[in-house]
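Could you join me in thinking about how sequence relates to backbone shape in a protein? We need material for that, and I hope you will provide a protein of your own picking. Once you have written the record down, we can walk along the chain together:

…
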Amino acid sequence: MRPPAARSKGSSAGEPRPRHTHAPTLTRPSDDPEHVRELIARLNTGWRIAGPEASRASLKQRLILPLRSAITRLLRTQETFNSLVVQYVNHQHHTISEEHQAMLAELHRYREALQARERRMDTAMHTLLAENAELRTSIGVLQQQVRSDRSAHSTGL
């Protein structure tokens, strides 16, 4: 027979274990155009392993520049890959932006066509309703004439 397991500090046999109160959450990148522009700007400036140019660098960055230059020579292939990825992202963003603009223009044309069709259908419906009202009036007049002719016929016989 096995001995009972030791209890952890601060818990008793009858108390349930505390659950995690903070579940990990995944965040989706924002589709906000300003956020996207900021990310692309960071990509376009941060792909170099050597860091910013010496003329734009802070004092801290200028002090570490010789070390970064040595590392850059070792990681030239990575920097080339980074450059290609940034070029690809820029191309995709430009292509998607153009496609998005084309889709918006197409949507606008489609919406205008639907609105014009709706106006034509409304006009046709109003015409049909007016004609229907005229027909009802004409039928009412004819029915009244038939009744009056019948009563005149029945009294005249």
